[in-house]
Amino acid sequence: MKKKETKNSRELCVVCGKDTGYTKETPVSQRKNYIEGAGQLCQKCFAEIYAKNSNPESL
Prior knowledge:
The protein has one domain (10-58). It has one helix at 43-53; strands at residues 10-12, 19-23, 34-35, 39-40. The strands form two sheets. It has a two-stranded antiparallel sheet with strand order 1-2. The protein contains one helix and four strands, in the order E-E-E-E-H. 19% of the residues lie in helices and 20% in strands. With 59 residues, the chain is an alpha+beta fold.
């Protein structure tokens, strides 16, 4: 049986499952580390994924 979501349900990182500090009601335009088409990432996962991929020396 699924937990009933409350108005202040927290958004979890789609990679590691940690609480991101945002509620589900926070507009994506007001969030950091939100990836359209994927979802919300925590700061650590965002840095690990995008810092590695945005390094021009790694190309």
